[in-house]
Design goal:
Blueprint (H helix, E strand, L loop, with lengths): L4 E5 L7 H9 L4 E5 L4 H4 L5 H10 L4 H8 L7 H18 L7 E5 L7 H10 L1 E6 L2 H9 L6 H18 L8 E5 H6 L1 H12 L49 H9 L1 H10 L5
Helix pairs in contact: 7-8
Length: 271
């Protein structure tokens, strides 16, 4: 772990965290996994198959993924941190980033393991991605390949994520990143983000180069999976949900107590 700096993107799903991961990973000194699921493999609930699938998208073979897990203790935060140190050595070569010394992971499901959240909030830099809860709700309920049960679960996960992280968000090592700021003012926002994780500003995240293993960033809105080239920041996505949700859906979001606390804390207005 000597000389390795770690950070975690921990905001709820549908808050632009994949886009943020891609912008961070574009920095020459940064390696950013995008939901490696290492935390859910080495700690409860042990989603080993999901971890292997995600690491395959990151360019790791099954044997490499297995070797990284070999003889690792479960339910041990220190062991999980050692996993990142070992995985980073391989990622430097696979992602062509020999000078990288800062490693991160987008882990929106950390909230499922409260002891892990407490440890990360104590010892590491956290980027907590947020977005207007109306936009989050719209993204969930308009998902074409989700069942009603999955939609309910994703909204419940949003609520629980915020409830678990809420006590830690005022700490100096935690920086809140608004999706709306990232899309509307990417350069200013990434200057602050890079500073928080301890690297100088780089405009490389705005350049049209081909990223290796582009499907590891999960969403084609963040990057073109065929070419590996970034997609433009689309400011139309900031407010279009307002005209898409029905009055009943807007009323549901408005009356949700956790969403209300979220809106008030981060100064979102639900008109």
């Amino acid at each position: 772990m000597l000389g390795l700096k770690l950070f975690f993107i921990a905001g709820p799903l549908r808050t632009g965290s994949s886009l943020l991961s891609r912008c961070l990973d574009d920095h020459p000194e940064v390696l950013c996994f995008c939901e490696s699921e290492a935390n859910r493999t080495l700690m409860r609930p042990y989603l080993v198959v999901l971890h292997f699938l995600r690491m395959q998208h990151h360019g790791f073979s099954h044997s490499e993924t297995a070797q990284l897990l070999n003889r690792k203790s479960q339910n041990c935060v220190a062991t999980l941190m050692n996993w990142y140190a070992e995985a980073a050595k391989l990622a430097k070569e696979k992602w062509r980033r020999p000078d990288a010394h800062v490693v991160g992971d987008k882990s929106p499901d950390c909230f499922l393991i409260p002891e892990l959240v407490a440890s990360l909030a104590q010892d590491h830099r956290i980027l907590y991605s947020i977005r207007d809860p109306g936009a989050i709700f719209r993204s969930i309920v308009r998902s074409p390949d989700s069942t009603t049960q999955e939609m309910h679960q994703r909204w419940a996960d949003f609520r629980k994520n915020y409830e678990v992280w809420e006590p830690y968000l005022e700490r100096e090592n935690v920086s809140v990143v608004k999706y709306e700021d990232l899309v509307f003012a990417p350069e200013i926002t990434m200057q602050r983000v890079y500073s928080h994780v301890g690297v100088p500003y780089s405009s490389r995240f705005l350049e049209p180069f081909s990223r290796v293993h582009p499907s590891r960033f999960l969403w084609k809105t963040a990057i073109n999976w065929e070419t590996g080239i970034r997609n433009d920041f689309d400011v139309s996505k900031i407010d279009f949900w307002r005209n898409d949700l029905t009055p009943d859906e807007l009323d549901f979001v408005r009356k949700d107590s956790v969403a209300t606390r979220f809106r008030e804390r981060f100064e979102y207005e639900l008109s």
